[in-house]
Every structure is written in structure tokens, then in C-alpha cells.
Amino acid sequence: MTVRKVKSVWNGTLKEGKGNMDITGYSGPFTFASRFENGKGTNPEELVGAAQSGCYSMFLSALISGEGLNPASIETEAAVTLGEVDGEIGRASCRERV
Questions:
Q1: What is the rounded end-to-end Cα distance, in angstroms, of the chain?
Q2: By the 8 A CB rule, do 94 and 77 touch?
Q3: Would you say 49 and 57 are in contact if contact means Cβ atoms under 8 Å apart?
Q4: How far apart are CA 48 and CA 54, in angstroms?
Q5: With 90 as the cut, is the pLDDT of residue 86 above it?
Q6: How far apart are CA 47 and CA 91, in angstroms?
Q7: Average pLDDT, whole number, for the chain?
Q8: Can you give the pTM of this predicted structure?
Q9: Rounded CA gap, 54 and 12, in Å?
């Protein structure tokens, strides 16, 4: 089985600190503002959405191919909502649109 590794580093306090996520071929900064507000940078939820939309597109392609058809292109968009769940901040939903 293939093992994929991702590294994240956070420096400082929650609200004033900053971090960086390193993924094969990508490095992205993130902050409190980029995660909980509309600040510049990425956030873990975007990466969850990217993973889910990528997997969905690939699986749908496999299903279509299994029926003898040849899908030209499958585009999936994921919208991840970070919100309050039972009084705590958490991922509230992830919706895909094909």
C-alpha cells in the first residue's frame, strides 16, 4: 500500500500564530484568519474538500468506465463549511457538486 505523508507546522498562539502545510508538490500558509474568517491563505478544510472531490471524480469515472463508457471529463467541486456543532467548532458539512 502506498503511504502519503503531509507535514504541518504551527508557530505561535492560536489567533496570532501562523502555520504552513507541506504536501507533495504544494506548500501553503494558513492562519487563524484563513481558517475561521476570510483571511488570505489555505486551511485544512480546503484540503479535506480537495481530497473528497478528487476521490469522488475518480470513483465516478470508474463506475462509468465499468459500464463500457468513456468519460471525457468529470469536474467535482466541494464546499466545506466550518461551523459550530454542539457548541464546538467543527466541520459542519462537505457537499460535492458534479
A1: 29
A2: no
A3: no
A4: 10
A5: no
A6: 12
A7: 89
A8: 0.76
A9: 32
Name which residue leads in pLDDT, 8 or 90. 8
Residue 24 grid cell: 507533495
- Contacts for 56 with CB less than 8 Å, ≥ 6 apart: 76, 78, 96, 98
Which amino acid appears at position 43 of this protein?
N
Q: What cell was used for 41? A: 491563505
Is 80 in a helix, a strand, or coil?
strand
pLDDT tens across 23-59, in order?
A: 988 999 999 999 888 899 998 888 889 999 999 999 9
User: Which phi and psi angles does 73 have, rounded to 5°?
Assistant: -160, 140
